[in-house]
Write a structure and sequence with these properties.
It is built from 13 helices and nine strands. By secondary structure, the protein is α/β, with parallel strands linked by helices. Strands 1, 2, 3, 4, 5, 6, 7, 8 and 9 form a nine-stranded mixed beta sheet that branches.
Length: 331
């Protein structure tokens, strides 16, 4: 169990606290029609979780639920749209880590503010993050990559799905702590990045396990390191960054997550009712199995306030990481 799961197991003990009664508010306060806005194209892990949530809400509550994919600008298009939406529960955001807590650490001119413009509703799931290499680079481990990069400064390249995303910042921090330089090649999404990684146009990439695992098992990517503190249950043959025992990287840990958020000003009874229904859905044994099939894990029961506190802690963490990588407020 990683540190993130342990944190929420501890927080789960507070379920009957301040939000106790409100968290289990009757679903009758929820609107009959909901739009789940996703800042990524179809096929992304956040998109998958949004569609699973939509299907279960339709079945359990008879709602009309639409998944609205609005990719672009490293998630800013979707987040700005939701932030400006009417706060009545009819428009919600399903987003992963990057737009909410990583891009704000790098970009000073975003059209939204994570803490000001959104109310956290519920965490949906978390995933391991993996550093992969394409077939055209002769390395099989993180130490081998660092050695090669030190011999060829600024020659090796790494892909990301956009500036200000998890893959961008994590690679900058890895390189900074290891004392090497690699060139960033941003893409608009995983599809073209993967094509160029397989075709050796770029050398390496950091991405979520749900997206990368199929390529790893198919022999098209080499898994150089898992970025969690513990090995992934979905790829236990891949060593962690900490296991490499490289100077500056012994305590390195990155975990991706996906959450449900509402526009600021959304009534608290709606937020509480949606939290109760969402955590019920994602806490079921059926859902755990479904998520595991996609290399995802679900969270223990938690309240909106606990999710809010977690987002605040993530903002602090990623700003510190951006500062350490020398990219804080660089855009």
């Amino acid at each position: 169990m990683n540190a993130l799961a342990r944190l929420f197991l501890a927080l789960a003990a507070c379920v009957l606290g301040m939000w106790g009664q409100g968290a289990w508010a009757q679903a009758s306060v929820l609107p009959k029609s909901i739009r789940l806005v996703v800042p990524f194209p179809p096929g992304n892990a956040a998109d998958f979780q949004a569609r699973v949530l939509a299907e279960h809400l339709r079945k359990s509550l008879g709602m009309t639920v639409l998944v609205d994919n609005r990719p672009g600008a490293s998630g800013a298009i979707a987040l700005q749209h939701v932030a400006a939406s009417k706060p009545d529960g009819t428009t919600l955001l399903v987003s992963s880590t990057s737009p909410l807590v990583i891009t704000p650490a790098i970009n000073k001119a975003l059209p939204y503010d994570t803490e000001r413009d959104f109310l956290p509703v519920a965490l949906l799931g978390f995933n391991d993050v993996v550093l992969v290499a394409g077939p055209g680079i002769s390395v099989n481990t993180l130490p081998e990559l660092i050695t090669l990069a030190s011999r060829r400064p600024d020659e090796l390249t790494y892909a990301s799905i956009g500036s200000g995303t998890l893959g961008h910042l994590v690679m900058e921090l890895l390189a900074a702590r290891a004392g090497v330089k690699m060139r960033h090649i941003p893409y608009k999404g995983s599809a073209q990045a993967y094509t160029d990684l397989i075709g050796s146009q770029v050398s390496v990439m950091v991405d979520g396990m749900p997206q990368a695992l199929g390529q790893i098992k198919g022999g098209k990517f080499k898994a150089l390191a898992i970025l969690s503190k513990a090995r992934s249950p979905f790829l236990d043959t891949a060593a962690t960054v900490a296991e490499a025992n490289l100077p500056g990287l012994q305590n390195f840990e990155v975990v991706g997550w996906t959450g449900l958020l509402a526009p600021a000003g959304t009534p608290r009874d709606i937020v509480a009712a949606m939290n109760a229904e969402t955590t019920r859905i994602f806490g079921s044994a059926e859902m755990r199995d479904l998520l595991a099939a996609q290399s995802l894990q679900s969270f223990p029961t938690h309240t909106p306030e606990q999710f809010s506190a977690y987002i605040r802690s993530e903002l602090v963490k990623w700003r510190a990481m951006a500062r350490a990588a020398g990219v804080e407020g660089s855009q």
